[in-house]
Structures
1.
Amino acid sequence: MESSDGDVLVVEDDRDLNELIGAYVSITGLGCRSALTGADALREIDRKAPAAVVLDLMLPDMSGFDICQRIKCTPGSKETKVIILTAMDNEASRARGRECGADEYLTKPFDPDHLMKTVTRHSCRQSGDGR
């Protein structure tokens, strides 16, 4: 598996929101890929591990928690930063996000500036680790 410096994978099943987040990521100068399903996300990660993943929890085919855990338990992607972005705004979901290894837990509706600062911070830290 090839790793990617400064590349962000947006995993969001709402096509319009996926494109919007991708546009924000592109404005920051980072590379961006997208996935609309969990299966597509895992294929993208297996092909080339991104520096960061913006991950929705409610996907049509699998839970974002399961995807996060897989990312964090796979040698080729365990250093990938996971930023959960979800409508699930409750303590039980936040605790589960921490348990599966998420680096950040943000909720919808979201502040685009805050999301991009978070993505940039994690992508830059990731790209500087010499992988």
2.
Amino acid sequence: MAEDLEQLQKVKSRLGGLIVAEEPAGKSWYKTGPLDIPVLRDIGKDLVGPLSIHSSVVANMRPNNQVFLYVRPEDVPKAKQIADQVLRK
């Protein structure tokens, strides 16, 4: 994780003024609580509980920590070349 953040900083530094927008995408696609998906716990007994109680995978989902860097369409080839050079090192 720290290595990924370091690489992000290197790419951002090398892209410099080519970057026209930076958007964090740190949301989890699954919400627990009132929005949790109800599941039948015991067939025939009508016991319903949230999916997050039955699935350790869902219960332990954490928000991702992605950052999207945007450049102008005409700068995409140059930006890709720069990013590739940084990420190959």
3.
Amino acid sequence: MPWQEYKRLANVQEKLGVKLIDMVEIAKSVLHAEPYKKAEVCEILGVNTEELATLSLSANTLHGE
């Protein structure tokens, strides 16, 4: 799935056609509980920090790590 098209977890849930409880389990199996660093997110998504900022970050998260 092209991640740029999905801004909310609910959008992913809808695309997958799963119930909320199932989406919770999917998220737990795929994501780790510790906070993600920008560098890790960039590596996973295959973008640089500028692309991440432009495509996904809000004013509140733009300058955090």
